[in-house]
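Let's practice the habit of predicting before peeking. Look at the sequence and jot down your guess about where helices and strands might fall. Then scroll down.
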Amino acid sequence: MTQSPAVTVLAGGVGGAKLAHGASRVTDRVTVVVNTADDARIHGLWVSPDLDTVMYTLAGIANPTTGWGIAGETYTTLEALRRLGADTWFMLGDQDLATHLARTARLADGASLSQVTAELATALGVTARLLPATDDPLATMVDTPAGRLDFQDYFVRRKHQDDVLGVHLDGVDDARPAPGVLPALTGADVVLLAPSNPIVSVGPVLAVPGVREALRTSPARRVGVSPLIGGRAVKGPAAQMLAGLGHEVSALGVARLYVDVLDVWCIDTVDAHLAPAITDLGLTVHVTDTMMRTDHDRERLATELVDVAGR
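Done guessing? Here is the structure:
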């Protein structure tokens, strides 16, 4: 019996979570390496938004409307905090708060983020291996006309309305890949770069010292999916971030950011006209419907990516 392929997904946000979920329906050997540079301390609790979005999606409990948070969530605690005068700009549901309470307590006990993530994922029935990109502090800071903002201030509090003049990763020089991250890249059959924001989701993962080099030299087939369709992001501020930082706002522009770490670039049928220019970069192009509206779409896309990697 042929063993199913080992697939590693580099992910952040809802798009990354959806592709990771699709991959988990294709093979039982999935590792997801997740961005941690948007982690934040909220109401004294350690919140890992991208890790939790991926974890809840893989557990089958994610809010189907937003893609983040938990389905059927209530906000009794948040409403009580508001009555007490707390600033409640960051939405945390009651079940979600339980995750953050458990994480914060374990971190205070001396457990690493990797250890805590594994414990939480197991408790929620997640069978895929879920790894933070690093156990070390890493923070995305966004330069705007209003000054340098913490990522969650920029993204949630200010609803990513500010022009982006620059993006910096505090702590990146001292960060190390979390245990298991480098072997997941060098030992995989297929590495998938999810259709996540290339600047603040996948970018911080690749910026952790050693990660980009491990992916660049990995014997795995490396396949990426464009987060832009027709020059627009499916979700989030990727398009305006790319524009503000001087990059071409297209599937071709994003391909240029990844050209050294990819073999195949998957673009939507809307962007098929960009295929020749992407081929000129030295990448194989796969054109398909990249929208993941349903669980079937996620599985279909992941199947195509694994199949094209094997060609």
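How did you do? The mean pLDDT is 96.
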